[in-house]
Amino acid sequence: MSNFPRPPQTNRVIPIAPEFLERLKAMRQKAQTGYVVEYQGKPLRKFRRSLKTAAEKAGLTYPVVMYDIRHLFATTLLREGGDVAAVSKLMGHASVKMTVDQYYHLLGDEKRRTIAKLPSLTKSEKEVETSPVV
After folding, report:
1. Distances (CA, A) of 86 to 74, 115, 116
2. Which own/partner pairs from 42-51 qualify as long-range (CB within 8 Å, at least 24 positions apart)?
3. Which residues of 104-117 are buried (b: 16+ CB within 10 A; e: fewer)?
4. How far apart are CA 29 and CA 17, in angstroms?
5. 3-class secondary-structure state, position 129
């Protein structure tokens, strides 16, 4: 039990990919404890320490903190074309503006893709009708 209970609005359901759900189920069947995340048959009690150890074993030379996982989640979704409003909800941000302010620099390709949707001003009408939609 945490010394700092979270307000109810901070608890949210995060949908996961079916493949990841299957992997979690497989891990649960192999688990030696009642926990999915364990090491050598023991539940992780100090996740921060475990994260630090894993980062060191991976050869990361900068300090990795728990917030980095959250940031990676949002960054990956947005770079892969995720909807900003949906990512904002998943992150629990109070507004889409908060998400845009934090992650807009990652959306540079979004601007390019958006502009690419405009009709060509140099092609003839016949070329526009027959050109493939991108």
Report:
1. 10, 22, 23
2. none
3. eeebeeeeeeeeee
4. 19
5. helix
3-state secondary structure the chain: CCCCCCCHHHCCCCCCCHHHHHHHHHHHHHCCCCCCCEECCEECCCHHHHHHHHHHHCCCCCCCCHHHHHHHHHHHHHHCCCCHHHHHHHHCCCCHHHHHHHHHHHHHHHHHHHHHCCCCCCCCHHHHHHCCCC
pLDDT by residue, tens only, the chain of 134 residues: 455 566 666 677 778 899 999 999 998 898 998 887 888 888 888 889 989 999 999 999 999 998 999 999 999 998 888 899 999 999 989 999 999 999 887 776 777 777 888 888 876 666 656 656 55
- Chain position carrying tokens 């908060």: 98
Q: Are 66 and 58 in contact (CB under 8 A)?
A: no
Residue 105: DSSP 8-state: G
Tell me whether residue 66 is exposed, middle or buried, using C-beta atoms within 10 angstroms of its C-beta: 0 to 12, 13 to 18, 19 or more.
exposed
Q: Which two tokens stand for residue 10?
A: 């901070």
